[in-house]
Amino acid sequence: MAKSKEARVRVILECTSCARKGFDKKSRGISRYITQKNRNNTPSRLELRKFCLYCYKHTIHGEIKK
Questions:
Q1: How many Å separate Cα 21 from the centre of its chain?
Q2: pLDDT tens sequence across 9-35
């Protein structure tokens, strides 16, 4: 069993612009990345600028719940 108080946790980052558009026939999906963050250093939600494969540009990817 994993410890519940570990400092490093796995988070999922999702493209904010794709998520706002929703799913339609033109959109193939939502870009997601998996990364880790230190819970002690960054207690708030993580936001990084990553490349979205569906928008074909760099967008802000925000942390989502598992």
A1: 16
A2: 999 999 998 866 655 555 567 889 999
